[in-house]
Amino acid sequence: MSDWRTYYEQRQRTAEEAVSYIRSGDRIATGHACGEPTYLVDAMVANAQVYEHVEIFHMVAMGKCEYAKPGMEKHFRHNANFVGGNTREAVSCGRADFTPCFFYQVPNLFHTTLPLDVALVMVTPPNEDGMVSLGVSVDYDYEAVMTAKTVIAQVNDQMPFTYGKLVPVTEIDYFVEHSAPVMELAKPNIGEIEQIIGEYCASLIQDGDTLQLGIGALPDAVLLSLKDKKNLGIHSEMFSDGVVDLMEAGVITNQCKTLHPGKFVANFIMGSRRLYDFVDHNEDVLMLPADYVNHPLVIAQNDNMVSINSCVQVDLMGQVCSESVGQKQISGVGGQVDFIRGAAMSKGGRSILAFPSTAAKGTVSKIVPFLDPGACVTTTRNDVDYIVTEFGIAHLKGLTLRERARALISIAHPKFRDELQQEFVRRFPLG
Ligand code: COA
């Protein structure tokens, strides 16, 4: 038996034993998104009475987030870098915190202001060389493993084995073997408006482009509209099932990519079991940490890089809020600005922010004279490039403030254009 096998066997623990290594006052990072080691997190929550003031750093939380529920305040404090449906209430009522940070800089937080006591991650069983894969989430999980004082891993044989950045078993302190389905992301509903927006976005994409797509109905609608394109590539913070469909249709080949030609590059994935089977032991998929994949200077090495993301509000100057509704934090910057800046530096690059013109069942315009009081600027007016709604495309880069306002009004929902026009006249009385 080689050394790594002895090490691996000696460090097997039950979940209950493993979470007993967590101490009051520790800072923990839990595996990201669908890579969350839910079996370990459940064991930690079941052990809550033993802990006081354990900080849990997390980004996209797909699990139950019971540590952020009422009654858990004394034991856990959730520190979110991205707020989702399961954590919005906890952050908005002050039971949990939010830390703004570009995704590409998150791994470095563990070296600077947020050093970790414990990393709780999910990995595959080791291969013949004693290496495990972080599977669906390499993003910040890799740096969490490399920097945390104690690393506890749920070893799950249902986690796909992905290549790019493998971890030697000796970097992990304790192993809890537990087989369970990896969390899946439900398919979004793509309505008529999303389809129209998808078509407009597709009109801005050329054969041979390399794409970054966010999550949700809009990116999926864009993918549906790309069926006639050729030789597209993927360099994206994440991707989902729609990308597999386009690969099978021969649209995505990655052949024209100037960085990692022939490879899908991402730092995490979320989707169905079909997606996880596609990436499993697939040498054409490179799953790499966020400080590489999302670094604007790395993104820029892809010629013809196109980023497609969404937002909450855009004001008439082109300032974009993508993370809050007024003061209420509803998500986070994620990789939006990383990719907008990377695409801006890419030869032939472009960035698109696409969204339905209205929100809240058509009662509010997303194009507004002023951002709501307390709303944050995610993408500045200096960074913004293309804006797309179901009423068309506004290419803001290089336009004056007056031209931007006019272009944005032309793609706002018609029922809100008069109000926007009144603000235009007030600001630019000479027209
Ligand atoms: N005014 C009031 N409410 C608004 C609003 C507005 N202008 N825009 C959105 N909302 C509300 C919606 O009604 C919805 O409320 P509900 O959950 O109560 O129904 C909620 O905010 C979320 O909006 P929705 O449009 O459903 O979100 P989405 O799933 O399409 O995501 C973003 C849109 C902007 C939140 C998302 O793209 C994001 O987080 N972007 C930033 C991060 C990013 O781009 N990452 C890069 C790639 S992963």
Summarize the structure.
The protein is an alpha/beta fold and 431 residues long. It folds into two domains: 3-177, Glutaconate Coenzyme A-transferase; 192-427, Acetyl-CoA hydrolase/transferase C-terminal domain (Glutaconate Coenzyme A-transferase, 3-Layer(aba) Sandwich).
Fold topology:
Elements: H1 3-10, H2 15-19, E1 27-30, H3 38-46, E2 54-58, E3 76-80, H4 88-92, E4 97-98, H5 106-109, E5 118-123, E6 131-132, H6 141-147, E7 150-155, E8 167-168, E9 174-177, H7 192-203, E10 210-213, H8 217-224, E11 233-234, E12 238-239, H9 241-248, E13 264-266, E14 268-269, H10 273-279, E15 285-287, H11 290-293, H12 296-299, E16 305-309, E17 313-315, E18 320-321, E19 324-325, E20 328-329, H13 336-345, E21 350-354, E22 358-359, E23 364-365, E24 367-368, E25 386-389, E26 392-395, H14 401-410, H15 414-427
Parallel strand pairs: 1-2, 1-5, 2-3, 3-4, 5-7, 7-9, 10-11, 10-16, 12-14, 13-15, 16-21, 17-24, 21-25
Antiparallel strand pairs: 6-8, 17-18, 19-20, 22-23, 25-26
The protein binds coenzyme A.
Protein architecture, described:
The chain is of the alpha/beta class and 431 residues long. The chain has 2 domains: 3-177, Glutaconate Coenzyme A-transferase (3-Layer(aba) Sandwich), CATH 3.40.1080; 192-427, Acetyl-CoA hydrolase/transferase C-terminal domain (Glutaconate Coenzyme A-transferase, 3-Layer(aba) Sandwich), CATH 3.40.1080. It is built from 15 helices and 26 strands. Strands 4-3-2-1-5-7-9 form a 7-stranded parallel beta sheet. Strands 11-10-16-21-25-26 form a 6-stranded mixed beta sheet, sandwiched between helices. It has a 3-stranded mixed beta sheet with strand order 18-17-24, covered by helices on one side. Helix 14 runs antiparallel to helix 15. The longest helix is centred in the last third of the chain and has 14 residues, at 414-427. It is globular, with a radius of gyration of 22 Å. The N and C termini lie far apart (80 Å). The mean pLDDT is 97. Coenzyme A (COA) binds next to loops.
